Amino acid sequence: MEAALFALPWMPVNIGGSDLLAKAWFGDTQYRVLLSDLSTVWEEEMNADDIQSRAQDLNKRLRAPTKAFFSHLCSVARPSFSSQDDDQTSAAHVALERHGENLTVKLKSELAGLPFYWEFRCTTTPVSMVCRQLVRPLLAVSRVLQQQVEDLAALLARKDAEIQDYQENGAVLSRARLQTEPFDVHQYRENFFTQIVPQMGVTLDSLGFDSELQALYMAVSSEKTGQKRKRSPDSSHALEGNDIAEQHVPEKLQITDFPTGVASSLASQEQNCVKGSSGRPLVADSKQTVPLPSTAAGSEERSTSRAKKKKAVGLFR
Question: pTM value?
Fold first, then answer.
């Protein structure tokens, strides 16, 4: 049952006027619920016999087997533990009560024309469960995001080197508004920490867990449990067990290896990496081509030979 929880994201919900993070799994005749306010994590796990016993205690006139009413319980309970619209949660009245360290979510709905009551009686979760379901996956997510930032910084350095190579061979930007400065990773980080982060208004008690983080959380957690998941073409990080197999950027492209203050020479360093043994720029890796004026006799001869080949097959008349 815990393995099934790993495949589910934490959802920001509002239950009885309280903002919480929720993760709920419902099986055929069993369920497991996790709730957290970032100060405490509560849980409840119930099997078919426990559900049958509690249903009879809360609904004295109910004589149906568990399978007969469990689907109804799932339909009214799931919206309360997910980020669905209020219109979808109107099928049940939901209330939240705290009893010391415990938490109770009360639901009141209608089943076959009669009132149906249910209570999720959650108790505090052991620290080991909190670490498995929240702390460790979020630490893995942070490592993935950090690696992504480093890969993007290395890609920008390569792009700067590519642009400089075009310029040195005579390419001219047709629209001046597209002109950019070479990327300085150290300056960017300094500005991000000192200017952008304070304006974001992120606090330690923020329950923001948007769809992108939820998808990344599930990717990390599913790899932890050995489940196979389809990755989108943009996904470039493979995780195995509790560790993350980081994708390494070639040494010459590692941004973190550059000392502070030499970002302006990134392009020239990268240019050396993309030149062949003959010293000529290798532009085959780029799908975009920029027409450059010929500046050497050798290049004119190569252009002429290519034109003759095309003429031989009837492309030019």
Answer: 0.62
